[in-house]
Every structure is written in C-alpha cells, then in structure tokens.
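Lecture 7, part 2: worked example. A protein chain together with flavin-adenine dinucleotide.
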Amino acid sequence: MYMLSEEHKLTVKVIREFVDQHVRPKARSIDKGEYPRQLLKLLGELNILVPTLPPDVGGAGADTLTQVLVVEELAKASPGLATIMEIQSSMLAENLYHNGNKVHREEVVPKLASGEAVGAFALSEPCCGSDAAAIQTRAERRGGEWVINGTKMWITSGLYADYYLVFARSGPAEARHRAITAFLLHRNSCIEATPIEVMGVRGTGTAEVRLNDCRAGDDDVVGEVNGGWKIAMWGINMGRLNVGAIGLGIAEEALREAYIYAQRRIAFGKAISEFQIIQHYLAEMYARTEALRSVVYTAAKMRDAGDSDFPLYAQVAKLLGSRTAVDVVRLALQIQGGYGYSTDSPLEMLYRDAKVTEIYEGTNEIILNTIYKFMREKFA
Ligand SMILES: Cc1cc2nc3c(=O)[nH]c(=O)nc-3n(C[C@H](O)[C@H](O)[C@H](O)COP(=O)(O)OP(=O)(O)OC[C@H]3O[C@@H](n4cnc5c(N)ncnc54)[C@H](O)[C@@H]3O)c2cc1C
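Predicted complex, written out as structure tokens:
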C-alpha cells in the first residue's frame, strides 16, 4: 500500500501478531459479554492503546495513520475491542491531553494510555442522542462546587469505567450547545451504571449511567465552562474517522472469509467461486473496501497535516466505512449460505457488529446533515 511507510508496515506486522495471539482467541468470549480489560492492559504495554500520545505519557509518538491502522487490525478480529480502544484513545486520552489541565494530562492520561484505567465518553441521554445539544443532565453551582445530576445512555465502557468524560448543561436549555460544560469524573458512589443488552459489539460494557448529586471542582472541568461542545466535537471528529477504520477492518475480514469459503465450497460439481455472480460479488466487495481504505488513510493524513477539511473527511470516512462494512458483510454472509448464518461462522458476529457503525458516533442521517453543512460552506 503506497501510503504506508516502512514504520507503518512494521506497526501492522506487530499488531497483526498481537491480534492473532491475544485477540482472536478471545473474540467470541468478548462477543458473549466478557469486557476485555486485560487486552487493554496488553495494548498499553505495547504503547499502542493510545499510539498518538508522546512516549512520556505512555504513547508511541505515532501519527494518526498509525492510530487508524491499529483500530483497523483490532476490528478484523473484534469490532467490540476496537470500539473500546478508539473511545479510550481518541475521545478520552488524546482529547484530555490536548484540551485538559495539568492534572488531566499528567495524572489521568498516563493511566488511560497504560490501560490501568478505563475511560468512558458520556454524551448521549435517554432524551437525546442525535440532538445532543438538547441534553438535560445539569451541572449546578452550589457552595463553590458543581453538582451534577442526570442520566447518560448507551455509554460504551460505562459499566467498567474509572473515569467518565461527562457533558452537562451549565446554562439555559435555550442556549443549547453554548451552555454545555465537560467534566472529568472519577468513578465513585454517586455514579450508578446498569448494563444494556445490545445486538452487536457485545462485551463493550454498554450502560445507562446515572449521576446522582455528583460533586465536581473547577479542576474537574475540561476546557472552558460552557465550552463542552468543543471538547465533544474534538473527540467525535476523531471518533468518526476511527469508525471508518472499524468499517474497513470488518469489510476486509468479511471479504477474506468469503473468498476462502468460495474456493472450498462445492455446488453443482464445482467450487462456487467459479460462478460468475460469486466472482462479481467478491470483486465488488474488494473495490469498495479498497476505496474505503483510500478515504480513511487520506483523512488520517489530512489530520496530521492540519488540513482544515479534516472534519469533513472524518464524516465521509464514517459514512462510507459504516455502509461498506454493512454491505460487504451482507454479501460475504450470502456467499457462505447457511453456514454464514450459523454461529460457527465469524460473519454472524461481524454482521451484528457492522450494523452499529451506522448508528453510533452520530447516525448516518446526522452524518449526511453534517456533510451537507460543510458542503454549503465550501460551495458558498
Ligand atoms: C452500542 C452503542 C454504543 C454507544 N456508545 C456511546 C458512547 O460511548 N457515548 C455516547 O455518548 N453515546 C454512545 N452511543 C449513543 C449513540 O451515539 C446514539 O445512539 C446515536 O447518536 C443516536 O441517538 P439516538 O439513539 O438517541 O437516536 P435518535 O436521535 O432518537 O434518532 C432516531 C432516528 O432519527 C433520525 N434522526 C434524528 N434526528 C434527525 C435529523 N435531524 N435528520 C434526519 N434524521 C434524524 C436518526 O438518524 C435515527 O435514525 C452508543 C450507541 C450504541 C448503540
């Protein structure tokens, strides 16, 4: 792949070995609900849990392309683990490193980067996911501190997190995104998490998280008071690129499984790969996967180059990544026939896991709205 340097190729080799040795054997137990905390620690030991951070806080000093390569490789075996990792790295650790205070940077970020601590990004609520500017969790000033009350919904790692990046309303509801503040809360008895059963990306500790009179000091504010929206978007833009990389990993894995199966499966006296329609399915899957790869890798390079179109490309990567994943797994599963529908086939899990990429980190309808908004500015 022409975009990859020798260093990137080495990273891919290392992470593939890691995935074969540690992730593939665990993928099904993660899918059955086991939260992979130990794997986060192992990724931390290799300095690739948050690869883009400098080495002094536990990263590898790597670029954004390295980040997406790690996410892509993890997603091939376990989209659930890739989801946990990308939230912990981009939406929490990297976000806190760039936008948090000295304590966040020096005390919390190294714990997140080593896997010693787990982090959760708590924006969505029962009232509002797409319309996140309407969140109802309140942060009120009482006696020189903040008191936070509300309920967060669908929070990945919510069951197990040591730190929650919580977004709360700190002004009038009419002010929408201009009156939201981000707080970093350490887990304590004011936080109650209950599990939510989900169709895919199981084992990610998805939870409803209730905040009951949680106290926070000014030092727990991330960024500026009423500046939480900026913190959320900083995380979400990178998160959307990561979802593109998850889609890429899922599509590659599904294509490989379907290709191998098509050579082996005999029908009407020959391998099904000899039927032209199967060849065309595989060719279509390949073309779409490679087109996606170009978009995801390009967006990663744009971020490091400081290209102002990065946020737009992050949306494009998320849209195409999720659609490609869903379409490619669907065709791959079709190629495997009855076997594909059985729980013996890895495609059954990937089919369930792929679907959520069209929903989380902004539904594809919201992504299309955002792309159109960027287009209006570009074409004005
Ligand atoms: C497994 C999983 C993990 C998640 N992890 C996290 C997490 O870690 N942190 C977090 O904060 N959130 C998380 N989420 C929440 C996720 O981001 C939301 O589910 C998502 O943003 C959609 O919000 P909603 O579910 O409230 O749907 P709604 O906003 O109610 O949307 C319902 C439907 O209406 C459509 N719609 C809404 N508004 C518009 C519009 N303006 N134009 C067109 N269509 C519209 C939507 O696209 C969707 O099809 C997770 C969700 C899942 C399923």
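The chain has three domains: 6-118, 121-226, 230-379. Residues 94 and 321 are 22 Å apart (CA to CA). Keep this in mind for problem set question 3.
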